[in-house]
Amino acid sequence: MADKYDDEEHRNKIEAPGTLALSLIFLVVFMVLWFLHFKWLVEVWWVE
Amino acid sequence: MEFRTCSFTGLKIHKPAEDLIKWNVITAVLFLTLGGLMGLLIGITRWPSVHYLDPTYYYRYLTLHGFDALLVWIIFFEVALVHFTSAVLLNTRTVIPSAGWIAYSLMLIGAIFVNITTFAGKADVLFTSYVPLKASGVYYTGVIIFAVGALTAFGHFFANIIQAKRDGAYKHSLPLGSFGMAAASIIAVVTLAHGAVIMIPTLLWSIGLIKYLDPGTYRLIFWGLGHPSQQINVCAMVAAWYMVSAFVLGGKPVNEKLSRTAFVLYIFFINVASEHHLLVDPIFSNWHKIINTSYVMHLAVFASMVHAFAIPASMEVALREKGYTNGLFEWLKKAPWGNPAFSGTFLSIIGFGFLGGTTGVIAGTEQFNIIRHNTFFITGHFHGTVVVGTTLAFMAFSYLLMPYIFKRELIMPRLASVQPYLYFIGVSMVSIGMMAAGALGVPRRHWDITFSGAPFSFTFDPSVDMFLSIMGLGTLLAVFAGVIYVVVIIGSALFGRRVAP
User: Fold this and answer.
1) Does ipTM come in above 0.85?
2) Of B2, B100, B116, B295, which sits 20 to 30 A from B441 (CA to CA)?
3) Residue B126 φ/ψ region, left for φ over 0, alpha for ψ in the -120 to 50 degree band, beta for the rest
4) Which residues in chain B have their CB less than 8 angstroms from residue A44's CB?
5) How is B305-366 classified by DSSP, letter by letter?
6) Residue B198, class by beta-carbon neighbours within 10 Å (0-12 exposed, 13-18 middle, 19+ buried)?
C-alpha cells in the first residue's frame, strides 16, 4: 500500500518537527530525572 | 441487510455488530466499576495511616481487583474493538453474529463464576493463583469459561476479516486500526492457549483428580497467559491511538509501512517479555535470561517507540494541514484539548511511555530485575502501562463510541472534558508512589509491611510513608475520576440526547 507521504516532495522532509523537538525535550528531562533518582537511591541504600 | 451510515464518520454500520459493541462496552464499564471499587479499598489499605481492610478482605479484594480490572474490563472492551475493527471500520458485516453472542455469554458467565466464588471466600489466591495456593474448582472453571469465550471472540475477528476480503471490503492489507487488532488477536490466541494448558490441570488438581502440580511448571506456563494478556492490551491500545488520531484529527501515519512493521515486531517479540517473571526462578539458564532481557526484549521496545513517535507525528501533520504551522508547537497549543477522546489518548501515550514503558525496560532487565522483583515498584510499573496507558486509551475511545455507535451525545460534557486529566494525575500519583516505595524495598501484595511478629525486624526509610500517602491520595483522585467516567458513559448510553441518524 502506498504511503500518503511516500513521494519526492516528502521523502527528505521532517514532517513533524514539533514531535521531534518534544521527543528530545522529554528525553533530556527523563535522563535528568533518572540520574537524580539514581543519586537519591544510592544515598538511601548506601552502607558504610 | 441491516446497515446504517454513521453521520460523523461515513462508515457503514451493521446492526448486529453495533449491538455486540454496545453490550461489550457496557459490560466492560460495569466490571471496571467493580474493579475500581476493589482498587479503592485495597489502595487505602496500603496507605499506612488508613490501613482500612483486615487481611482476609484485603487479599480477597486484591484477587478481585486483579481479575476484574486487569482482565474482565479490558478484554470485554477489546472484544468491542474486535467487532469495531473487523466490521465497522471495514464498512462490512459481521459474520455469524450468534458466535459473537456465544462469546459474550461465555465471558460473562465465567466472570460471574469467578466473582461469586471470590466474594464467597473460596478463592483468596490473588490474580496469579500460584500453586500450591488452592481455590475452589468453580474459580478455575470460571477462568476457563471466560478464556474460551474470549478465544471465540478473537476467532470471530479472523472470520470477519476473511469474509470481508471475500466481499471486497479491502484489497491489499487491512486498515491500520484493523491491522493492530489482528496483531492483538494473534497474540490473544497464543495467550489463551497457554491459559487452557495450565488452567485445566489446575482445575483437575483443585478437585482432587490430580495429586500434584509442580509450582515451577505452573509459573512457567501461567506467565504464558498472565503477561501476554497484557501484550494483547498493548496492541489494542496502540490500535485505538491510531484510530483516535484518524477520527478526531484526520491523522494518517507518516510512514504506514513502519507502523505495520512495528505491529509485526510485537507479534514476534513482545511475549518474550513474559520471561521477566521467571528471572529469579531456576527454570531458565543464565544465557537464556541474558539474551532474552538484554537483547530480544528491546525489539518489542523498539516497536513501542516507533508507535510513540508515529502517532503524535500523525497528529502534528494533520494539525499542520489545518493551518497551525507557526513555530514548532502551534499545532500542540491548538489541539482539541477539551475533547476527552483526544486528551485521553495524548495523556495515555505520555503515561504509557514515560511511566509504564521506561520502568518496564528497567524492571525487565535481568540485573535490575533481581533487586526490583516482587517489590511495589513492579505494581507501580504496571499501573503505568495498564491503567494510565490502556485503561485511559479505552476510556478515550469510548467517548468516540458514544456518538458513533450508541448514537448518543455525552451527558455532562464539561465534566467529561476534565475526566482524562483528573484520571491521569490520580493514577500517575498511584504509579509514582508505588514505584518510589518499591525502590526503597516495600514489597508488593503484602498487607503488613511492618512484618509484625516476624523473627527479623526491618525498618524502611522514613520517606516510604510519604510515598505510600501519595499513592493513597492518588487512589482517591483516580477513583473520583473513574466515577465521573462511569456516570458519563452509562448516563450517556441511557439518557444522552440522540444524535441525528
Assistant:
1) no
2) B295
3) left
4) 440, 461, 463
5) HHHHHHHHHHHHHHHHHTT--STTTHHHHTS-TT-HHHHHHHHHHHHIIIIIIHHHHHHHSH
6) buried
Tell the residue number behind the cell numbers 467529561, with chain if given: B416
Contact list in B for residue A18 (CB cut-off 8 A) is 316, 328-329, 331-332
Which cell is A32 given?
Answer: 535528568
pLDDT tens per residue across span B441-475: 999 999 988 888 888 888 899 999 999 999 999 99
Helix (H) or strand (E) holding B4: strand B3-5
The DSSP secondary structure of B359-407, one letter per residue, reads: HHHHHHSHHHHHHHTTBHHHHHHHIIIIIIIIIHHHHHHHHHHIIIII-
Q: Which residues have CB under 8 Å from B281's CB, separation 6+?
A: B216, B219, B220
Q: How confident is the model at residue B363 (pLDDT cuts 50, 70, 90)?
A: confident
| Torsion region of A45: left, alpha or beta (phi above 0 gives left; psi -120 to 50 gives alpha) | alpha
Q: Mean of the pLDDT values across residues B387-392? A: 97
Q: Report how far residue B407's alpha carbon sits from residue B362's, in angstroms, rounded to the nearest whole number.
A: 44
Q: Find, among B383, B392, B446, the residue nearest to B62 by Cα.
A: B446
User: Chain B: nearest CA to A32, how far in angstroms?
Assistant: 13
For residue range B64-111, list pLDDT tens digits in order.
999 999 999 999 999 999 999 999 999 999 999 999 999 999 999 999
Give the separation between CA B426 and CA B367, rounded to whole angstroms.
31
Domain B3-495: give its CATH code: 1.20.210.10
Single-letter amino acid code for the residue at B239: A
Given a contact cutoff of 8 angstroms between Cβ atoms, the answer to whether B223 and B197 are in contact is no
B267 and B187 Cβ atoms separated by less than 8 Å: yes
Per residue in B261-279, pLDDT (tens digit) is 999 999 988 877 778 888 8
Q: Which helix (H) or strand (E) holds B5?
A: strand B3-5
B14: helix, strand or coil: strand
Query: How far apart are alpha carbons B254 and B336 in whole angstroms?
Result: 20
3-class secondary structure per residue, B187-209:
HHHHHHHHHHHHHHHHHHHHCCC
B167 C-beta neighbours (distance < 10 Å), count: 13
CA distances from B3 to B88, B91, B93, B413 (A): 10, 9, 8, 29
User: Could you give the C-alpha distances from B318 to A3, B211, B225, B315, B325, in angstroms and in order?
Assistant: 15, 61, 38, 5, 11
Q: Does A35 touch chain B (CB under 8 A)?
A: no
Q: Provide, rounded to the nearest whole percent, the portion of chain B with pLDDT above 70.
A: 100
State the residue for C-alpha cell 498493548: B234
Residue B177 has pLDDT above 50, yes or no: yes
Which one of A5, A19, A30 has the shortest CB-CB distance to B312? Answer: A19
CA torsion B283-B286-B287-B289 (nearest 10°) is: 70
Of B89, B98, B105, B42, the residue nearest B70 (C-alpha): B42
